[in-house]
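Usage example:
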Amino acid sequence: MSQANPNPIPPAPSAPASPKEVKPAAPISRGDFLWAGWGMLAAFFAATAAAGARFMFPNVIYEPSQKFNAGPAAGFDLGVSTKWLNEQRVWIVRTSTGFYAMWARCTHLGCTPNWWGDQNRFKCPCHGSNYTMEGDVIAGPAPTPLWRAKVELAPTGDLIVDKAILENKPGKRENPPYFVDFASV
Amino acid sequence: MPTVDIEKIKKEIIDSQLWRSVFRGGVWKDTPRDRAAHIIGNVWLHLHPVKVRPRALEWLYTWGMGGISFALYLILTLSGVALMFYYRPTIGLAYRDIKDLEFAVTLGMFLRNSHRWAAQAMVVAVIAHMVRVFLTGAYKKPREFNWGVGVLLLTLTLFLSFTGYLLPWDQLAIWAVTVGTNMAGATPILGNEGPLGSLAGMRINNDVRFTLLGGTMVGENTLLRFYVMHCVAVPLVVGILLILHFWRIRKDSFSAAPYQANEEKVDVWPHLVKREYVAAAATVLVIMVWSILQNAPLEAIANPNVTTNPSKAPWYFVGLQELLVYFDPWIAGVVMPGLIIVGLIAIPYIDTNPKGIGYYAWKERPFANTMFMLGVVLWFALIYIGYACRGPNYAWYWPWESWYGLKAAPPATWSVFGPKGDGAYSMLIGVPLLAGVSAAWMLLPKMIQRDLDGRKTMGAFLGLLAVLAAAGMAMGKMDVLQGAFLLFFLGSSFYFGFMLPQRHIRTLDWPRYLVTMVLVVSTMSVLLKMCARLAFNIKYVLTIPSISMNI
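Running the assembly step on the lines above writes:
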């Protein structure tokens, strides 16, 4: 072959020094050997535990989409609509200025509150949290206001709600994308 | 007509190679040696000693509750395995399979009933067993470790119940598990909704709740996970701990009571084994009759979007549910249950009283017995309130009130100390004030090194409260009922949480004393927070929203 060898054989090492000059490595002490052994065993068990814990976190989950079409905005009357509660767990609220979509999940421990129109309150059946129509806590153990979901107005006039994008801070939740202005309907 | 020689036939059978290969030993002559060999030579019975103290046989001493718990565990294993033949753990099939078990499978209803009722009976039996062991001081040296194993077994019994009631996939199932796993999501640091959770990088799809659910919501993975935990993983752990529990009972001997003069041990066979079989037979009979007379509840099929109103946990968790009304989820759902478990395990190590080992000793162990029974009574009082006094919207309905009348909306709650806008007063006053009161409460009982006159001190404290209440009423800030609440809850907290420790445990060394006081003060904090919420609509005494520190 005319091709040059890319890995030329390294030159042969020089002749070894006389055997008398080679000192054997210091033998590993019994104590160090045991430490290393037990250490490796402990590392093995720790790694097994970590791998076992990681195994319990699925990499792919098959869950329904959080986005849905709530139908024509004009179809909602003033106040709280429970139309989508049973299917999508969302209240569509129409105020005098526009729309917002409230995720019907109690911020305490995740039950679905009920809307009591005559008392103007959401009340949770699990631990008795009470919320106003705006989603603010007035009684019971819930720590934070109800979440509002992202809501958009499609060109068709339908409300598109996305429960994966949420906001509950006063000042932010009253603005787009968590609020659809009435004027745009 | 030839006569049948029964004795001869018996001898021939027993001497046959087949019989001898199965059963060790020869003809039964009921000698002490035979009775000992019956225990030693039997894999099932050899967990027993050969002889046992006569005290260990008395029903009034043991209540038989440990043995009955184990009998119930066996009933649950058998009925559970039977149910598994007809049950498929998927969302589409689970509820239908339970309905089939009820209406289409021969004995299906009976087996499901047995499984449900035996599970509830086991919760009662295990708790009763713990109470008995506590009251007879049977956890003291050298049995501390076995008491700890027992506490773990109690916890696992409750966890088995919890994982079990997701399986029917009815409304009770899905909402109990939603609430339960959301409590896990409120764990400090490890949960995405818990304090410091977001700082530690927890999100809805990587925290401890996510592993329990196998997803971000209760779904197919959750059902499968709970099924595997309920049917395989947890029973295995329980089985291993049971072996340990029984082995230690035997090694530490059956009765802790002081020896009496001329006390002679009796043969375990037949005296103890006979009683165990009678108790097991009675347990089976009770569960069978109960299962014939009453069907296990099954609610409507699970709807992940709408909760039943009211939605209540099974009775043994309703106390926890009621606790969650008063405290934030990470406190009521994680810290307090954790404190209860750790505190129970710690009891044998903090109780240095050498008296009252192996017998009921109300007079010799006034503090230990009072505090423990107070905890048990408080737990069952919470269960009673949650079970009997809560109606639609989890509002307060007296047991005699109809659930059809809608209650007026509860008044708005308020917080005492917090940042501007969240609390009525500044948290800059609240933090040092609460820290000071807690420190004084924790330390003073030990630092006052003399006997307080119980009547005078209690009288002075109640008098002070009465003056406060009267002033509050005069200023129109309090009504009579609120005054009575204040007197009762603060008075009893002071008596059980201050007077009793001051009288009985101030001589303990500091570490044991402080651990005990942490448990005592936490117990009293439940009483105090209940008073604050029920009578004064106080949501939090102190709130620091930025770190989810709400108490």
